Amino acid sequence: MRIAIVINTSWNIFNFRLSLIQALLAEGHEVIAIAPHDNYSQRLLDAGCRFVPVTMEQGTNPFKDLWLIWRLYRAYVRVKPDVVLHYTIKPNIYGAIAAHWAGIPAINNVSGLGTVFIKKDYISNIALRLYKQAFQYPAKVFFQNHDDRKLFLKHELVRAGITEVLPGSGINLDAFKPMPKPDPTAPFTFLMIARVLYEKGVAEYVQACGLVKAKYPTIRCQLLGLVDERSRSGIKQTTLDAWLATGVIDYLGTTDDVASIIAQADCVVLPSYREGTPRTLLEAAAMGKPLIATNVPGCREVVQQNINGLLCRVRNAPDLADKMEQMLQMPPEQLQKMGEASRHIAETKFDVNFVIQRYLKAVAEVTAHKQV
């Protein structure tokens, strides 16, 4: 069977869907990765995929993006997949329409709602209309948390019968596993891993780090992630530079070896405004780290209050600082217990093999329906 995976970057496919690709290849399927060309496109080829480049502009311009339907339609007609797996907003919307035009069954995955339900403006209103139009067509729609599914049903954007909730993209428990802190004498370290966007809570994290470091000047507060100024929620490099100049946080840039950075942290923080199921929290949980996150959809799927971490109020830096201080004051035994609980949650709820099995089943179902 020929299966196309369509995402907004090759980087995203390689980093978040490689386990699924390997499982599909092991089952004897042909996998075609469809995405813009970037530094990770060759890695997809090396992994055994075919790669078909399709341009997807960044930013939100629905009128300009309508051309993406045509580009994806042409790719689908040329490649002739038996089923298309869509991820991220643009493939979910425009890819679903293109697959419908091409007569190919599609499986969509809503991995997070981004600014559509966070920032209310004319662009988000257009996006909602596009979702309602496009989501008539997929054979299956996966959500990564129950809140997002309920919201789509409330707005009548999708039929309930084709929806299902998955535990995010899942986590490879062998690639991310507990390991001792390389330097146990190093200062207590908070780590946030996210694109440098306002909606990820980066501004609140910086402010909270300032409040905590004023009382505990020896602690470390780190930020790992891509600066994305072209995003609607992107933080300017100049703003980040100003924050760095205060010495409140250390910016680590980006890396392909996230596990080694997580290993050096004592607590991983994500004060996001809304998530699907955040990959960074899954990685940290699998590595046995205590967590702090906002009490919002997606984050509370991973963080259980006082079990494996602490939940704070959204857009509230003082409350985040309070939770960071609580974490600092915990005895080592309690931190270790929280870390062990994180690993247990990762093993029992978020194993990538469960996600893979659901995809294999869904692919078989929708392609069998097509053949009938």
TrEMBL record:
Organism: Pontibacter fetidus
Gene3D superfamilies: Glycogen Phosphorylase B
UniProt domain Glycosyltransferase subfamily 4-like N-terminal: residue ranges: 2-145
InterPro entries assigned to the protein according to its UniProt record, in alphabetical order: Glyco_trans_1, Glyco_trans_4-like_N
Keywords: Transferase
Protein name, entry field: Glycosyltransferase family 4 protein
Keyword Transferase: yes
Superkingdom of the source species: Bacteria
Domain Glycosyl transferase family residue range list: 184-343
Record-level Gene Ontology MF annotations: glycosyltransferase activity
Range of residues in the leader sequence: none
